[in-house]
Amino acid sequence: MDVAHGDPRPAAGPSDACRTRVVLGIVGDKWSLLVVRNLRNGPRRFTELKKAIDGISQRMLTVTLRSLERDGILTRTVHNVMPPHVSYELTEMGITLREATAPLLEWSIAHLARIDDARATYDARTDTPVAS
Amino acid sequence: MDVAHGDPRPAAGPSDACRTRVVLGIVGDKWSLLVVRNLRNGPRRFTELKKAIDGISQRMLTVTLRSLERDGILTRTVHNVMPPHVSYELTEMGITLREATAPLLEWSIAHLARIDDARATYDARTDTPVAS
Q1: In the predicted model, what is the mean pLDDT of residues A48-56?
Q2: Which one of A33, A100, A112 has the shortest CB-CB distance to B28?
Q3: Could you report the predicted ipTM of this complex, rounded to two decimals?
């Protein structure tokens, strides 16, 4: 692995660069971004998250929630009521993450049409469209 | 696929939710985030990006650059000099994306230590650490 030769930033050595990449592998992931966003109004049950996040599989939601719990982004609470259920809630650190990801989510929503246009232009110009 | 029943936001219907997910699949990806970040000071050559982004493979960098070019985030320029080379530069839209991702990158760097602590606590509590 190369260290960050081309990075003019004086801070963060190669070790921090590598660790940043690992952290981004968790929090900079579309499912993580969407889970964190859907917890913005307080605790949610697993089934509520499953319904709210278009296209996520049961397994992917389970894996994503476990990673975010491990990273200290959310807490998992088992409610021993009838019927029993599990809920998820952002930690204090999770709330700051949600704030940090909000601009990226807003950007994605605001630029949907321009990205569609760019893709159509690119695909018309090349014979080999990139799988999206 | 379920529509976003649990989402109290009145805007964006299921179609937009699905398209947002597709866009996040491209821009909300650790390699895309790192490529965009490394173009913040102007055009960079392929080899400069490869050196600057710790751990990225030649193939993953190629795929990431092509996706970002297709989405209108960056432009690719072939320089017919000796030796010939290719450079990449953020478009106007790419610059706004970089601004939108900056808080998430800063958050990741700022919270490295707390996430490490949370992982250690979680792994000590459970017998089955999550692969990171």
Answers
A1: 92
A2: A33
A3: 0.75
Query: Token pair of A61, please?
Result: 């939601």
* pTM flag (> 0.80): no
CA-CA distance, B53 to B51, in Å (whole number)?
6
CATH of B14-98, one of 1.20.1740.10, 3.10.50.30, 1.10.10.10, 1.10.150.240: 1.10.10.10
Partners of residue A93 in chain B, C-beta under 8 Å? 111, 114, 118
Look up residue A48 and give its two tokens. Answer: 């509520």
Chain B's closest residue to A14, CA to CA, is B54
Beta bridge partners of B86: B78
Of B21, B34, B118, the CB nearest to A54: B21
pLDDT tens, B64-82? Answer: 999 999 999 999 999 999 9
CB A50 within 8 A of CB A58: yes
Residue type (1 letter), B90: L
Return the structure tokens found at A91. 């930690």
Chain B residues in contact with A104 (beta carbon < 8 A): 24, 27-28, 100-101, 103-104
Assign domain A14-125 one CATH number from 1.10.1670.10, 1.10.10.10, 1.20.1440.60, 3.90.1150.10: 1.10.10.10
**How many angstroms separate the CA atoms of A26 and A69, rounded?**
11
CB nearest to B23's CB, from A23, A24, A115: A115
For the segment A85-103, what is each residue's pLDDT rounded down to a tens digit? 999 999 999 999 999 999 9
Residues of B in contact with A111 (CB under 8 A): 23, 93, 96-97
Inter-chain CB proximity A119 and B19 less than 8 Å:
no
B8: which chain A residues are within 8 Å (Cβ-Cβ)? Answer: 41
